[in-house]
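ok trying again, last paste got cut off:
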Amino acid sequence: MKATGIVRRIDDLGRVVIPKEIRRVMRIREGDPLEIYTESDGSVVFRKYSPVGELSRVSAEYAEAINRSSGIPIAICDRDNVIAVAGVSRKEYLEKPISSGLSGVLSSRRSFSASDKNGEVTITEGGGEVSYLSPIVSEGSVIGAVMSLKQDGKTHDGSEKKLIDTGAYFMSSQTEI
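nice, full thing came through this time. structure:
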């Protein structure tokens, strides 16, 4: 663990304020769930909770299934990191932070299609481009996305969008179980 040098007191209701600088750097937004861990040495650790991350094995299997059946490269992310990929280098994307552009698309709560001339969005800073994205919504909040990646010289038809939308719906339903 890395010491920040910041000290906060617990108020009479048991609350602790996480400083704005730490929230910004760690991408902790208002309403984000935090998981609390305790260590035997008395440490208390807060970690961002990711419902999509809890489904990383299912996400990986689903991405692989879409890729094998369609040949489309697939990535699945939560609000912070890429959690599953298929059809592309895992080393290049897996567990890497998502780009600020992708984070902005998730905040818009809408599907994204590069073919609609919405500009280009990369998955990670300096990473591959998104062809189509459908947000994963759970309990009214966007918690991640299923997306297809652009391939050189290849265009995808409407079936690509249906596969991605189906994946996002499936992942949404898995988080609400």
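cool. The longest helix spans residues 158-175. The mean pLDDT is 84.
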